Amino acid sequence: MGTFCSVVKFENLQELKRFCHWGPIIALGVIATCSTMAMMGSVLWYWPLHTTGGSVNFILLMNWTVMILYNYFSAMFVGPGFVPLGWKPENSQDSVYLQYCKVCQAYKAPRSHHCRKCNRCVMKMDHHCPWINNCCGYQNHASFTLFLLLAPLGCIHAAFIFVMTMYTQLYNRLSFGWNTVKIDMSAARRDPLPIIPFGLAAFAATLFALGLALGTTRAVGMLFFIQMKIILRNKTSIESWIEEKAKDRIQYYQLDEVFVFPYDMGSRWKNFKQMFTWSGVPEGDGLDWPIREGCHQYSLTIEQLKQKADKRVRSVRYKVIEDYSGTCCPLNRGVKTFFTSPCTEEPQIRLQKGEFILATRGLRYWLYGDKILDDSVLEGVSRIRGWFPRNCVEKCPCDAETDQAPEGEKKNR
Length: 413
Known about the structure:
The protein is α+β, with helices and mostly antiparallel strands. The chain is built from 10 helices and 13 strands.
């Protein structure tokens, strides 16, 4: 724990506000519920502490809880690491290969992306995770992945305790008839009797905790396998998406080129060692990365620039014809629009009649795009983008003639 305290440094009490979010509240609630009920079940009803097996079982449960919370809080408070404000490459000529972030007033280092929630450019950003209310990136990706591994393992152990608790407590109290099953919820037949009888409330709480444990095992376990799949290829979730869009771009324009991901070392063990180290600190500084032979240092950022240019070409200009308040499920835009609101953390944006928007992708009743800002917009606001209903806008005549479709729609035709 001393190492954890030396790594986690609260710059101010503002960091504690990370707990004030539905993600950490639910995550910590599930951990507390499963851990508490598993320990109570072991001590009171299933495996007494005065036995060797009971003591070992209880210590193992404690270790699961400590390790899960350690990695959870490490991922939350150590953070992903941010690109220094005002950062620029050592060689000024390399800036032509990089994107510039107007919010951070700095160039985006290779593998970094700007997070709207954190309002900073994140080094080797994988995603913004609501469960830790922070980004997952260069510094905390290993802790986050270990949390995804330990949580299902701890839940499997807890689920075993819950099943055995209910089995041992109800075994002598089940009466099977021809048409009914009767359960006598009187005190357990155990010598000595437990301090707290396994009554109806204890049974309901144990059954509820079992459901949480099994659900967490499935959901978090799937996330772990997804993360390990991209980690062993030395990628992030965003980079996997960029690679897929690179293939789509090349196929769309039938180009004679091949995109090779530059950070895959060709060995899963080498890729694994870049993130997981004995010291707990990942290799590198989060700004410069080793690349595979034959690749350019800025291969990925060059591809990103190509994709952004392609997005601008394939975007469609719309004019706002009706005001939209930016609500998630607008009642005044029609029943179909209300029930098909995009299920994503990307925001909805407020629209005013007469504004113009460049739409880049869309659903049947919703579009996603960027507002075309004018000089009256406050300084420091680089982009305003998000979802909005289709029936609030109309395609500009100049774009209607070309009959282009937002990215994502053309592929579905």
